[in-house]
């Protein structure tokens, strides 16, 4: 966009925040379902505010383990990620990257993935 090669792009905040802050590009719309967490995006309208219905385009970060993990090994990693999600480092990561903090694990994560796949498949 800055070079003039394209007029529109679908990006996540970390891919364009410096350009927004520098006034080099304008953000037209957020497909997220929550107001932006970064001050540079505070005035960007949500698609839902303009009448769009779900599904919204979201990007999630997932951690997967080997299929043969024991319950104890799986719980170990859930505990590690839970502790990390409560840390100052995680809070800084979320803020610096304008992300929405959400940690889901276990059955709740399985349900989230299944429902997301169904929604995106139009089922």
How are the elements arranged and paired?
Layout: H1 17-21, H2 71-85, H3 88-96, H4 106-121
Core attributes:
Bug_dom1; BUG; 4 helices; 2 domains; mainly alpha; 123 residues
Profile the largest sheet. Answer: none
Mean pLDDT metric: 83
Reading the helices and strands in chain order gives HHHH
Q: What is the 3D form?
A: globular
Rg over C-alpha atoms, rounded to the nearest angstrom: 17 Å
Question: How many domain modules?
Answer: 2
CA-to-CA gap between the ends?
35 Å
The count of strands amounts to 0
Give me the number of helical elements: 4
Contiguous low-pLDDT stretches (5 residues minimum) are: none
Helix content: 25-40%
Estimate the strand proportion.
Answer: under 5%
Helix-strand category: mainly alpha
Family: Belongs to the UPF0065 (bug) family.
InterPro entries: BUG (IPR005064), Bug_dom1 (IPR042100)
Question: Explain this structure to me?
Answer:
- The chain is mostly helical and 123 residues long.
- The protein folds into 2 domains: 1-58, no CATH class; 71-121, no CATH class.
- It has 4 helices and no strands.
- 2% of the residues are buried.
- The mean pLDDT is 83.
């Amino acid at each position: 966009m800055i070079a003039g090669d394209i007029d529109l792009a679908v990006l996540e905040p970390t891919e364009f925040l410096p350009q927004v802050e520098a006034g080099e590009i304008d953000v037209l719309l957020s497909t997220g379902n929550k107001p932006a967490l970064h001050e540079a995006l505070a005035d960007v309208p949500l698609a839902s505010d303009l009448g769009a219905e779900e599904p919204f385009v979201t990007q999630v970060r997932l951690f997967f383990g080997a299929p043969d993990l024991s319950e104890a090994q799986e719980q170990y990693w859930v505990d590690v990620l839970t502790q990390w999600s409560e840390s100052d480092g995680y809070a800084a990561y979320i803020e610096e990257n304008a992300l929405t903090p959400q940690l889901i694990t276990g059955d709740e994560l399985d349900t989230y993935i299944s429902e997301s796949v169904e929604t995106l498949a139009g089922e």
